[in-house]
Amino acid sequence: MNENELQKLVEDISLKYFGRPFVHQVKINRRMTTTGGRYHLSDHHLEINAHFLVPQYHDYLVGIIKHELCHYHLHLLGLGYQHRNRDFKVLLQKVGGSRYAPDIGLRKKKKYRYLYTCKNCGLKYPRMRKINTRKYRCGKCHGQLYLTQTLS
Q1: How far apart are CA 80 and CA 132, in angstroms?
Q2: pTM to 2 decimals?
Q3: For the chain, the helix, strand and coil percentages under 3-state DSSP, each to the nearest 5
Q4: What are the per-10-residue average pLDDT scores of the chain (152 residues)?
Q5: Which residues are within 8 A (CB) of 38 and not within 5 positions of it... i.e. 6 or more apart?
Q6: Under DSSP, is residue 19 helix (H, G, I), strand (E, B) or coil?
Q7: How far, in Å, CA of 147 to CA of 125, rounded?
Q8: CATH superfamily ID and name for 3-95
Q9: Catalytic residue among 3, 11, 47, 68, which?
Q10: In principle, which of 7, 108, 112, 116 could form an S-S bond with 145, CB 3.0–4.6 Å?
Q11: DSSP state of 51
């Protein structure tokens, strides 16, 4: 799906579910990983995650577009457009938009590099960075920590 097709889809969804036209621009963002879309307050354009534009995620895409259009229309009407606002929650429920972006495997898993263990209680502490074992102690029993293994 290209930007012109996406623009047309957003305009159609806006008229069908919100009864209001979408008169701004939709852009495709290829760098997004954890979010499905974004609404920009400054110039009112929408950004959609490029990973959701494949046919197998079409249902997710429609939910994401409805979510972003809730922000868009409520902001332009001067109502509560943020996630915490009641206006937003009610409208999102009414149109059937997604509350959260579905996880389609784009999020990176954390890989720990160091494993520290407490000498007293044996509690393990996986860490991304090295820590000063003279300065830091076990949070459970205040025992001394030692570097068990370095993972790569």
Answers
A1: 47
A2: 0.74
A3: 35, 20, 45
A4: 95 97 96 92 96 94 97 97 96 95 81 93 94 95 94 72
A5: 29, 32, 46, 47, 68
A6: coil
A7: 9
A8: Metalloproteases ("zincins"), catalytic domain (3.30.2010.10)
A9: 68
A10: 116
A11: G
